[in-house]
Amino acid sequence: MYRQGKYPVVAKKAIAKGIFDITVYCPHIAKLAKAGQFAQVAAEGYFLRRPISICDIDKENGTLRMVFEVRGKGTEKIAELNVGSLIDIIAPLGNGFTVLEGKKAVCVGGGIGTPPMLGIAKQYGENAQVISGFRTAGIAILQDDFKAAGCEATLCTDDGTAGIHGFVTEPLKARLESDKPDIIYACGPAPMLKNIVALAKEYGVKSEVSLEQRMACGVGACLVCVCKTVKDGEQFLSHVCKDGPVFDGEEVDFS
Amino acid sequence: MSERLKVNVCGVEFKNPVIPASGTYGYGREYECLYPLSKLGGISVKGTTLKPRQGNQGPRVAETPAGMLNSVGLQNGGAEKFLNYELPNLLTKDTRIIANIAGASIEECAELASLINPSAVDMVELNISCPNVKQGGAAFGTDCNVAAAVTAAVKKELPDKPLMVKLSPNVTSITDIAKAVEAAGADALSLINTLLGMRIDIKTRRPILRNNVGGLSGPAVFPVAVRMVWQTANAVKIPVVGMGGISTWEDAVEMMMAGASAVQVGAAIFADPYAPVKMIDGLEKYCEDNGIANISEIVGTVQPW
Fold first, then answer.
1. Cβ pair A216:B270 closer than 8 A
2. Which DSSP helix (H) or strand (E) runs through B39?
3. What distance in Å separates the CA atoms of residue B165 and residue B100, rounded to the nearest whole number?
4. Fold classified for B3-51+75-196+217-298
């Protein structure tokens, strides 16, 4: 179940260079939305919508928060929207993360794969550790949001300008050794996801990963957004928009 | 909805002339939460092959100015799944159902037709124009003799259903193909399928599509489609269903004036899932405002200089 419409932007700020944080008032959509789902956002003057993950959902106030990076001219156009502008979205789309009530989770975000971790981490509060990795300190986003949600926030940077100097897999491995969580959620570059799934498997922990792919319809009709998956030894070309964007880590073929 | 929009295409009556195009609307399931499918004139469902097909590797889509390239490669669950799972559901939707079929050989197309013939679909659209498959596809639609042979073979196995043949624009003379297909027994034509195109990522020097090339659709192709529909409608006696970049009711009117008895809408749905219903409402109002008793009155009424 999803909706399409034009909804007002009620908050907007640049939270790092080229990274924007917008809040949209869309009560019908907020009511339906789950952590891990995404929106297809129209970029004026461009033919295809841009898939943007939902960062956070405020059902009470009827808002969705989306944090996105300007990657090209389409996202640049979306970043030009201001408070009061109408944003044309189709949402909520895709399947979202599976929530294990009363369990412990580790949420791992790599770069712009970090925003979808907020919605799911919030549902675990202090039972969630959020490990996020960025190239450098200047683009290390959302750390305060994770802390405000009661989560343990572990920051890594590739260049050592903040937090742990290294990849997210290092603190993840340490955590798996010391206090195994019940589930690992991850979103980020494919090589990172591949390593996380391998670690999860090694330690016998369930993992869910959120993938991205170039899309057109966003709802499962056009079949363009394929990713390789494996189930019961059989290979499939699944669709990120409808079968995902969240997949069981062990079902994704990262080859 | 009034009688104003009713159209007849080779004996099949559609409540209005707006039909989502094959491959852009799945089997309707994805859009039902927005509006009832009964609003639509019909649905040309996702292309069906004899056996299930996985399609091409990704990426399968690239944006272009006012359009997009796709290289899906006919991913579908095969004829059995269509007939046993998708069709029974579609038949409850109170709209015309057009089965779209494609095969890698003439024999395969004929076998598919024989499977579809006893079903309850309203019409069959034979795809001889898919640019994204290595066998069959556009290879059937770019040679008059082959196009005629596959049409005749399918028609023979389809005694109970009207046959519409979907043509490729990637030809020197679309009217030659159209006439060959008409002579071979087609009851209607639909055009245009996508135009073969390519985009390259200048950073990686790689084509954006994993298949290197793909089919161009969207508003960018609309003028080409209007021209081809106009030429074809003037060259054949059988009805023509027009498609290619139609996004608004004005585009639909234009396409009908060029000679289309009905229209199919594709890529526009990705930008706006309500596009087909907005088009239907717009056509209704257009008829009202212009004192048109039935939309068919405008078909082929362009007055060329």
1. yes
2. none
3. 9
4. TIM Barrel (3.20.20)
CATH class of the structural domain A3-93: mainly beta
CATH of domain A97-210: 3.40.50.80
Contact B61 A2 (CB under 8 A): no
Q: Is B42 helix (H, G, I), strand (E, B) or coil?
A: strand
- Is B130 catalytic? The answer is yes
Q: Which residue of A has its CA nearest to B274?
A: A4
Over residues B188-192, mean pLDDT: 98
Cβ pair A4:B272 closer than 8 A: yes
Interface test with chain B among A93, A226, A227, A236, by most B beta carbons within 10 Å: A226
3-state SS class at A217: coil
Alpha-helix residue ranges (DSSP H) falling in chain A: 27-32, 73-79, 116-124, 143-148, 169-178, 190-202
- What's the whole-number mean pLDDT along residues B204-211? 96
Q: pLDDT band at B53, cuts 50/70/90?
A: very high
Amino acid letter for position A89: I
Q: Is B16 helix (H, G, I), strand (E, B) or coil?
A: coil
B54 CB neighbours in chain A (<8 A) are 236-237
Give residue limits of the domains in chain A.
3-93, 97-210, 212-255
Of the pLDDT bands very low, low, confident and very high (cuts 50, 70, 90), residue B1 is low
Q: Which of B10, B33, B109, B130 is catalytic?
A: B130
| B249-290 pLDDT, tens digit each | 999 999 999 999 999 999 999 999 999 999 999 999 999 999
Q: Where are the domains of chain B?
A: 3-51+75-196+217-298
CATH architecture of A212-255: Ribbon (2.10)
Closest chain B C-alpha to A219 CA, distance in angstroms: 6
